[in-house]
Amino acid sequence: MIQPGSTRRIILTLLLAAASSSLGAQSREVVEIIAERFTFTPSKIEVEVGTMVEIHLRSEDTDHGFRLADGTNVIIPKRRHGEAVVEFEAESPGTYRFECSKLCGAGHHFMQGEIVVTPRATDASLVR
Amino acid sequence: MASSAAFGRLTEWAEGGWQLIPRLPWYRETPRLVTPRPVNRPLRAGRLPALGETRFAQQDPPAGTSGSTTSVFGGISGYMDFHFNDRQYEDPQIDFHRFVLLFTHSFSDRVRFVSELELEHAFVEGLEEAGELELEQAFIDFLVSRELNLRAGMLLVPVGIINERHEPPVYHGVERPFVDTVIVPSTWFEAGAGIHGELWRGFRYRTYVMAPLDASGFDAEEGLRGGRQKGSQANFRNVATTGRIEYVGIPGLWAGASFWRAKTGFNFPRVESQVTLGEVDARYRVGELETRAQYAHVWLDGMGELNRTLQRTIGVGPNVARQIRGFYLEASYFVSPRPAPREAAVFVRYENFDTQYKMPSGFSPLPQFDRDAWVFGLSYYPDPDVVVKVDYSVVNSQSTVTDEPNSFNVGLGWWF
After folding, report:
1. B101-152: per-residue pLDDT in tens?
2. CATH number of the domain at B144-415, please?
3. A8 Cβ contact list (under 8 Å, min separation 6)
4. What pTM does this model have?
5. ipTM reported for the complex, 2 dp
6. Which has fewest Cβ within 10 Å: A71, B171, B256, B264?
7. Which residues of B touch A94 (CB under 8 A)?
8. Domains in chain A: ranges and CATH
9. Sheet strands (E) in B269-369
């Protein structure tokens, strides 16, 4: 039997749980990047600050590398030899370069891209 | 069934399942994946650096430097191309066609050097048919921003699919497409300088000023090919402008358009001649199917006067056309069993190319140079960077007198 006032307590608990879960929620973005001599597709990624970013890297030809400005550096295996996955939190707004870190031919130096971390829409509206 | 067994056998060999030679004491086996295996785990969990930390094109370098001052040798890369050609009416030939080494160096994050040195036909005697040592690329890139970068030195002309990406594993067929040989004279390289970058997502451009073509080298059979100055003490009285815009924003799709324009008659000051080339191309890959298409058209002004001048000067008129054009369509399909990191693709390509398409007034076209070709064959990749190619070319012309030779070709190419 439900005691008097219990219904109110249950509803309050559910509301608090929902609120805390929405406050703590972190958006997650999964991106697939294809590496091929001599380009990354896509070569520009935009995410909001605070997003957990999971990048799946797959090659259409030879081994490539994926180096981020913070020192993250992984090998993207050759075509049909699997994929590399890089995961990070986009902590601060800004534009961050990534590039191929394994010599792959004459156009190797031009395999570059950018991750653009933008302020949250709510933050941006507060600034305005 | 037999072909499947043979393929399996080749795959087994490529995996190291059986050895061509016994293992020597100093032999070290390289670990490798036996089957494609997704690595569905984070290889690194980290955070992007905060603003102000090392970043490209966002942070001004210290005064007097160009970003990082660390000078790094980029290493050696290269590709090789080894052919067997059996052309109708001729003895078969075996030829180490290309031995190419690439050297790169990063003076800093923003100043980088790339070079490509090519030895053709394994022996240098002085003419292209006998052998050539060519400096196909040697340039410095000054990386300023994503949208705008500077480049100067020996550059590949940014025209067509093959000219800038001509390594054996990236195209089907032992020899390059005919259109990329007699209409777009690949490998086409000249000294010059220019800018390049990515304007919007997936839209990239390159535009250069370069040494022009030399019209005295043009001919009826191979069009512009003999006019390349190859950056060797090149006449620069007339400046060529060239450029390419391409879209690579959708996985599997590459689409581009290119142009070249220059006056070319510097060896004959009284002849007003000019070359204008326009080209469009596309590659699209979906699943196991890949398609390619390219169309190139060249307008040559002043060729009537050039033909007459050469006739008077050397006694032979080259019969250069006022327009030449060519196109090809190619489809390939990967037939590899899955799962397997080894691959095989069958392909067929139709080419149509005419180096006498429109003639100057007073000159008749030579019909043997209005040609088309069917090329079909197989590319087997024991590794994505190694390819064994087999093809057969059927070439026809509009001539009722001469017969274009068909050919059976086998090639081995690799890239590292």
Report:
1. 998 888 887 898 999 999 998 888 766 666 788 999 999 999 888 899 999 9
2. 2.40.160.10
3. none
4. 0.80
5. 0.71
6. A71
7. 48, 51, 55, 58
8. 26-127 (2.60.40.420)
9. 274-286, 289-301, 323-334, 343-358
